[in-house]
Prior knowledge:
The protein is mainly α. It has helices at 12-27, 32-39, 46-52, 58-70, 86-111; strands spanning 44-45, 74-76, 81-84.
Amino acid sequence: MRSASEPPAASRADAAAAPLLTAMDLLGQRWVLRVLWELEPGPLGFLELRRRMGNCSSSMLSVRLQRLQQAGLVVKQTDKSYELTAAGKELGVALEPVWAWSNRWARALAADPVGEE
């Protein structure tokens, strides 16, 4: 029997879900999806990317770019522009069905707002 201070043992499902949960945690961080979205068409310098990010501060953008580089989704080129890696581009393709679903969902909500009778 385990003591109350011991964490429960990880289940097989936890181990199987770990990569997905890690990816969702990364993508759920504020500004991460926006950075990926802005870089999807091609490389951008920091200042241009910052301009496109609206009210994202320079320091926050730097933190997010660093995290995306660590995750292998973005690379900083020798000309100091940022670009999606092959994995970052593959993630964009993987997210296309989610983007399509979100558009359908938004249209459905607009047509029949929840809570209105």
